[in-house]
Write a structure and sequence with these properties.
Layout: H1 4-7, E1 8-13, E2 18-23, E3 30-35, E4 38-42, E5 49-55, H2 57-60, H3 69-83
Length: about 100
């Protein structure tokens, strides 16, 4: 897997409290819910994670200064990528078509 420091792109939706993280340019991918509100994004047939979406980010990682969301999010995403570099192999479909937008 590529080094997240070099290619990690983060976007935070303030209105919906959703963090989007992508390794490289965001791309269409499937989602696997690893735990409540944490979606690992991958492109079959590879199980390698290409992005992470965290719903209700500030509920799980409260910050006094919301201006610091992206800097705090970087550490959270890097930790998740280290723990979950890929989705469980039994969850990867053999054949699928990705039609959703990033």
């Amino acid at each position: 897997m590529a080094c997240p420091d070099d290619i990690l792109e983060l976007d935070y939706d303030v209105e919906n409290d959703v963090l989007y993280a992508s390794l490289g340019t965001p791309q269409a991918a499937l989602s696997y819910e690893m735990m409540e509100d944490v979606l690992l994004r991958y492109i079959p047939p590879s199980p390698e994670v290409v992005g992470i979406t965290i719903i209700n980010f500030l509920r799980y990682y409260p910050l006094r200064d919301t201006a610091l969301v992206l800097s705090a999010a970087k550490a959270v995403v890097e930790d998740l990528l280290e723990k979950y570099p890929s989705i469980p192999l039994d969850q990867v479909p053999l054949h699928s078509t990705i039609t959703d937008a990033p």
